[in-house]
Amino acid sequence: MTAYTVTVAPEGRTFRCPDTKSILVGIEHNGGADAVQVGCRSGGCGVCRVEVLEGTYTAKRMSKAFCTDDDVAHGILLSCRAYPTSDLVVRPCPKPRDH
Fold it and tell me: How confident is the model at residue 99 (pLDDT cuts 50, 70, 90)?
């Protein structure tokens, strides 16, 4: 297991996240539940959307209602379904208004 640093922009708060935990769980377990919105924790609600500004990750399947192929191509994903593979900088990215 390797742990990476996740920085939440723009405030710059940092959290450690093991590669075996989702970005959302890493943030939550390190006292940062207010840094990213938390919802169902399983990819069904879309409130934990973030944009990855720097770094790499792997992602499990996400609802296309909340993360389209275009979103994913631009680094927008559900933090509950993504796992760090390097240090990351993420920015909260609210779900689309039509949901």
Answer: very low
